[in-house]
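chain below, 61 aa
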Amino acid sequence: MANQIKITLTKSTIGCPKTQKATVKSLGLRKLNHSVVKDDRPEIRGQVNKVKHLLKVEELD
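prediction:
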């Protein structure tokens, strides 16, 4: 089974560029403190890295 990561939106996207807002939306995050669990893949890690200042990431086993 693949490793998974839990991604939580901890800061608002108000005032962020449109590309960062779109990245947060594509990760499936809607509101503050909303969390999603995704497979740990390079594509997801790249998206997380782009908006890492807005997120909290935890690795799950």
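Residues 4-60 form a domain with the Ribosomal Protein L30; Chain: A, fold (CATH 3.30.1390.20). The chain has a mean pLDDT of 95.
thats it, cya
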